[in-house]
Each structure stands twice: as C-alpha cells, then as structure tokens.
Design goal:
Blueprint (H helix, E strand, L loop, with lengths): L2 H38 L5 E5 L5 H10 L6 E6 L25 H10 L7 E5 L2 H4 L2 H7 L4 E6 L4 H11 L8 E4 L12 H12 L3 E8 L4 E8 L6
Helix pairs in contact: 1-2, 6-7
Length: 229
C-alpha cells in the first residue's frame, strides 16, 4: 500500500474507531463523576476546566451534570494554543500554538453543545499570566465541584494547581486528563506537578478515584490543618 493509501486508511480508522472510543470513555467518566456528586452533594458552585480545545469535554461535562446541579462552567484557556514548550515538556505530541481554538469558536461550540451562554464564563490567557489574585477574588467565595485539568504540560499545570487551592471543598474532584502522557513518567507532566503540589501542601488530603487509559481523578478530603474531616 502506498504512503497516501496508508494515511487515508489510518484517517478512516481514527474516525471510525478511535475517536468514538474516546468519546464513549469521556461520557462514562463524566457519568461516574455525576453519580459521585449526586450521592455526596458537594456544596459547590463551579465546574472548572483548564484547556478547552474544541469544547468536547466541556459539553460532555454539561450534559452529565446540568440536570442535577445548577453550576457555572468556567473555561480557562489561552485561546492561542499551547505556549512555548520548555525542555521538561518537550515531546513529539506538543508544539507551540497547537490545540488552538479561539475564544469565539469555543463559545460557539459550547453553546451548540447545549451549554447556556449565561452559565459559561471564559478566562483568556496563558495560566502564569491569567490566573491572578484578582480573578480568584472575582470567583470566590464559590467553590468548585469538579476541576478538570487538561493542561498537557507540567509548566502549565503548576500555576493551575496553586490557583485552584482556595476553590477546593470536601468532595471536590480533581481530574487530570493527561495523567499518562510522557509514558506515565511520574517525573514529568501533570503527574510531577501534582506530586510537587502535594509536597508543598502536605496537609491537603486526597483520595484516589476513577481512572481510565488517559485520565486520573482524585477526591479532595479536606485540609488536616484546618477543619477536621
């Protein structure tokens, strides 16, 4: 088979098998999160998503949650694709500017997917610049029920985790979309960022939760240095 023929066959297989499989797993994940939240009723106001390319995950989240909870959906994204890739994050899968969806396109796709415009907040910018104390003050004192971290990179995940800390409440589920990137190496990517976050904040307690071939979730149990849980 020619190279062009192999490429066409690969594209057909990706469209027919690969993407529908990922969509099913995404739906199953969010239904698992919905069951957990419905059973435990976290006192929360938000669904946070960091990295919202094409709005597929955002729409899946709304589809799973909106009948049960009146949350506001906050989409954090550069809307310019990935930032410059530092040495620790270099991999064949990532390149500067990749995975770019404009803010206007994200809003359009989300609304077409069912998310009401009045329930959607977008936050534009690379995370080391956009996740400011002023932004936190604007969103607080609300808490997050689900925090979906689809940052791909270690360098992007570090500021996200520090930003979301005041939004954690007992029962918040912290979900990492790219947990097994970099061959699952715990010294890279989102895994390294979360390990360092937990070392910086050793009194924050987390419980392992659901896992797929791409995603890993943790339940926040509380701060052992504050209110006893």
């Amino acid at each position: 088979m020619s190279e062009g023929g192999e490429s066409a066959e690969r594209g057909e297989w990706l469209e027919r098998e690969y993407e529908p499989f990922r969509a099913r797993r995404r739906q199953e994940l969010f239904m698992s999160l919905a069951v957990f939240c419905y059973q435990n009723r976290p006192v929360a106001d938000y669904y946070f998503e960091f990295g919202c390319h094409r709005a597929r995950t955002l729409c899946a989240a709304y589809d799973a949650f909106h009948a049960l909870f009146d949350w506001t959906y906050v989409a954090f994204d550069s809307f310019a694709g990935l930032p410059p890739i530092p040495a620790i994050d270099r991999a064949a899968a990532w390149s500067e500017g990749a995975l770019c969806t404009s803010e206007e396109e994200l809003v359009r796709l989300a609304c077409e997917g069912g998310v009401p415009r009045q329930k959607l907040i977008t936050v534009k910018g690379f995370y080391d610049e956009s996740l400011t104390p002023a932004l936190a003050a604007r969103l607080l004192p609300g808490k997050a029920a689900i925090i979906y971290v689809d940052c791909d990179l270690y360098s992007s995940t570090v500021p996200v985790l520090e930003f979301v800390r005041p939004f954690l409440v007992r029962g918040t589920v912290l979900v990492f979309d790219d947990w097994f990137c970099f061959h699952g190496d715990p010294e890279r990517g989102e895994r390294l960022a979360f390990a360092e976050f937990r070392r910086r904040h050793p009194l924050l307690r987390f419980q392992d939760f659901v896992e797929t071939s791409e995603v890993k979730a943790f339940i926040f149990l509380g701060d052992a240095g504050g209110e006893k849980v």
